[in-house]
Amino acid sequence: MKRLSVLLYVAFLVLLAAPAQADIIYDNFGPGDSYQTIGWTVGSLFDFDQGNAFAVDSLGMDYYLETIELAVGLVSGPNELDVWLMTDLADEPGTTVESFHITGEMGSFGYLNPPLTANSLLNPLLEADEQYWLIASATGPDTWAAWNLNSTGDVGLRAYRADLDTWGVSDTTRAAFRVTGLSAPVSVSEPATMLLLGSGLLGLAGFRRRFNKG
């Protein structure tokens, strides 16, 4: 019986120390990462920035950002794209949390190209039930790209602006993107952790004494 108790304590402590699991925070791609072959203009003559809002709806779970994937195709010009993860400010993009620069990865617009992938270096914490914005922007005046719309019927807030003017916001079909993250570890108070560890060691010591007497 004591041996079983020790094993249970050890298993529980191992679970506490287990690494975080990668999860999909938001995803509106269709089967096989499909999406529509039409989209919102990024860059071009008036330097359009396009953005989509998403919420971390995770039943109270926070996440550390891991990757961002989005379906953006190149129409003409240099094959470069800036992607920004931003906070929400009264249903508009707020401050930049992390920025990404993608070079030479966009396929020709109008085709089902593989999603672009941006790997997070800062791994910022995305809080549960908070809204964030994903923005696509051209890096120079000669780049013309387009962010493909999702094919799953997903509708939500879209932000857009030209020449760094104020943001306009509408409720419409979102562009196609996916956000993944590592679940933040569950917080366990230090006294509780020490109590569990102490109980496990005591149980282990009792088992060893009984085993030696036998």
Entry keywords:
6-stranded antiparallel beta sheet, 43% strand, 2 helices, alpha+beta
Word description of this protein:
The protein is an alpha+beta fold. It has 2 domains: 1-19 and 187-204, no CATH class; 21-184, Sandwich (Jelly Rolls). 19% of the residues lie in helices and 43% in strands. It is built from 2 helices and 14 strands. It is globular. The chain starts with a helix and ends with a helix.
Which SSEs are present, and which pair or pack?
Elements: H1 2-17, E1 22-27, E2 39-43, E3 48-55, E4 63-70, E5 72-76, E6 80-88, E7 93-103, E8 116-119, E9 125-126, E10 131-138, E11 144-148, E12 155-162, E13 168-173, E14 177-183, H2 190-213
Antiparallel strand pairs: 1-14, 2-11, 3-10, 3-12, 4-8, 4-9, 4-14, 5-11, 6-7, 6-10, 12-13
Helix pairs in contact: 1-2
Short description:
The chain has about 210 residues and is α+β, with helices and mostly antiparallel strands. The chain has helices at about 1-15, 190-214; strands spanning about 20-25, 40-45, 50-55, 65-70, 70-75, 80-90, 95-105, 115-120, 125, 130-140, 145-150, 155-160, 170-175, 175-185.
Tally of strands: 14
**Beta content:** 35-45%
What's the end-to-end separation, in Å?
15 Å
Main β sheet profile: 6 strands, antiparallel
